Amino acid sequence: MRRQTTALVMAGVTAAAVLTGATVSNAASGPSAAAHHPTSSSASAAAKTISLRLRPSSPELAACFPNARSRVRVALTTDAIGKDTFWIRASGLKRRTAYTVFLIQKAGTPFGAVEYIGDITTNRYGHARNRFSLIVEEAFAFNNETQVRKELNSVGFWFADPKDDNGCLGAGSPVTQFDGDASAGVQMMNSGVHKLP
């Protein structure tokens, strides 16, 4: 009886090992595994990527920051993983200064609908960069009362502190609401006629 029980236990272990090996093998090599459960890295590797260059938002700011440059790059992965990756880099800006980044309906004034997506802060050389995870390709603003939908296909960033643009525009420069505390400076750069999909 003991010999028979031992044989049954060993057979069960062997069968379990074979079954487990087959399941792991199918999960690792099955053709539909990656399609149904994509990882962030695999989806990003196959993602379509788009780029936009941003320019100073006014002649006065362009003259004040003649070396200002900014580029936005977006990996479009919402369909695969439920979000996109948005990178922004900037240089030639005011040093040690915070800026608020928005997806916007219209690149320039009056801007229309907007979405605040994050901040960038320059270092001592006037360089800044950041990465945000959010839906970009399908970003929109919707007013349920009026049933009006606005696509957010442009990008811009503002001086987070209203005093930070005074060196270029003077102490009477506008105070805007483009920050979480509803007190910001003017828009520094935007994507102009170039739009996100």
Give the arrangement of secondary structure elements.
Layout: H1 2-29, H2 33-36, H3 40-45, E1 48-56, H4 59-64, E2 69-76, H5 78-81, E3 84-91, E4 98-104, E5 114-121, E6 128-134, E7 140-143, E8 148-151, E9 154-159, H6 166-169, E10 187-190
Antiparallel strand pairs: 1-2, 1-10, 2-3, 3-6, 4-5, 4-9, 7-8, 9-10
Describe the structure concisely for a colleague.
The protein has 197 residues and is an alpha+beta fold. The protein has helices at 2-29, 33-36, 40-45, 59-64, 78-81, 166-169; strands spanning 48-56, 69-76, 84-91, 98-104, 114-121, 128-134, 140-143, 148-151, 154-159, 187-190.
How does this structure look, described?
There is one protein chain. The protein folds into 2 domains: 2-36; 40-190, Immunoglobulin-like (Sandwich). The chain contains 6 helices and 10 strands; from the N terminus they run H-H-H-E-H-E-H-E-E-E-E-E-E-E-H-E. It has helices spanning 2-29, 33-36, 40-45, 59-64, 78-81, 166-169; strands at residues 48-56, 69-76, 84-91, 98-104, 114-121, 128-134, 140-143, 148-151, 154-159, 187-190. The strands form 2 sheets. It has an 8-stranded antiparallel sheet with strand order 5-4-9-10-1-2-3-6. Strands 7-8 form a two-stranded antiparallel sheet. A hairpin with a 4-residue loop joins strand 7 (140-143) and strand 8 (148-151). The chain starts with a helix and ends in a 7-residue tail after the last strand.
